[in-house]
Structure prediction request, 290 residues.
Amino acid sequence: MNLNEKAFELLEASKLNWTVTKEELFSGDGKPTNSYGMFRSDTNAWLGTVGDRYIPMQNYELAETIIQAAQGLELETMRGGLFANGRKIFLQVSLPDENIGMGGVKRWITATNSHDGSLSIGFGSTSTVIKCSNTFYQAFKGLDKFRHTVSASSRVQSAMADMRRAMQLDQGLMDNFKRMADIELKDEMIESVIRKIFNVDAGSNQKDVSTRKFNQVQAFANSLQTEVELEGKTLWALFNGVTRYTNHQQNFESVESKNEYLMTGTGYKMSNIAFDDIMRFVEERTVMFI
Prediction:
């Protein structure tokens, strides 16, 4: 297939085969404003309000850029999706699976974009533990240099450079997961994570916290117990207890709402707070044994 055919196939499969239009907004009495609305071409849905200088990058432009950049890095398998009705979209390029702990992890480099001006184009890592489908997304800061206002060839070269760097960062993430799997889980680690993500003490009684908070901690405890049974008593099990909680303890209305929760919402924040806290224990133990 040529580039256009590959882009079309990817966009169709990802429900992204539509464009956006930028239209000037007027007051109720017809006066011009300095604001512009972004609208989907297929549904006419309003996606957000942007300023005069905002230049949208169409889904097909991003798809063609990512396809060419991935080919330049000898990567082939791709997929994508959207959330918030298309306000934000993502495309992913598959990396080889990694063995961590007692099982495998599927890996993707994720390119994100928004049509409401809330996100610049950037890259991150998406990892899914195969046996329990726990997905963790981490945005890579400093990799949003990719601009769509330059020529197509320049976009591809820039995307290739950022994807190459994202692959290096993703490998570092996998190495940290392996370090987690080698460290024994202690009660103090569990208590610290619970304090960080729920803002309550692990030993709190139901009368000391709200019913909602108590139920959240109990649900997390159940998720952690399941992961300890699968992975053993390790920091990797603790991290998977968090991602099991964020992935499976919520009632999602759709795949799109789950994507939003895990990639930009509360689930994203909770998982990354836990990751940072767990890595603090990893680094402390690394220093102890140097």
Q: What stands out?
A: The radius of gyration is 21 Å. The first helix runs from residue 3 to 14. The chain has a mean pLDDT of 93.
